[in-house]
Amino acid sequence: MYPSELPRFGTVALEAIADALASLGRPVRVCGLSGLTVTKAGVSLFTSLYGCRERSFVCHEHILQDPSTGALEVHEADDPMQLQALLHRGLSYVVRVRMLMVTPDEPSLVWLTLPAAGTPLAHHAAGAAA
């Protein structure tokens, strides 16, 4: 079902979502997939593998790390000066939180597993291919 070079972790979540939708016992149409990504791996998964992108909503939260303790902190910074002030305090930058989304009219690996809008879910093939 999926191209063989795809990392397995990238398909597990989609298969779990498809299983949950199938368990509802009635036709379901998915009008989009979105995720609030808070890690570099999450951003990569949603942009590179699922083909998601930011829309009109841009999150201004940033994940920073205290290098002395390793603790992660979430800070909201609306402009570069606010972020620069946090970095001058000695925090290390990790990633900006992003709300990423893909819709059925856009090409995506997502639509190989989830029933896109207009396509009722009768049975999904992901479980059969696993």
Folded structure, characterized:
By secondary structure, this protein is of the alpha+beta class. The protein has a domain at 9-59 and 97-129. It has helices at 9-22, 40-49, 80-88, 126-129; strands spanning 33-37, 61-65, 72-76, 92-96, 98-102. The radius of gyration is 18 Å and the shape is elongated. The N and C termini lie close together (9 Å). Residues 120-130 have low confidence and may be disordered.
Oligomerization state: single chain
Strand arrangement, major sheet = 3-2-4
Give the integer mean of the pLDDT values.
Answer: 84
How far apart lie the N and C ends? 9 Å
Write the layout of secondary structure elements.
Blueprint: H1 9-22, E1 33-37, H2 40-49, E2 61-65, E3 72-76, H3 80-88, E4 92-96, E5 98-102, H4 126-129
Antiparallel strand pairs: 1-5, 2-3, 2-4
Name some characteristics of this structure:
single chain; 130 residues; alpha+beta; three-stranded antiparallel beta sheet; two-stranded antiparallel sheet; 4 helices; 28% helix; 19% strand; elongated; disordered C terminus
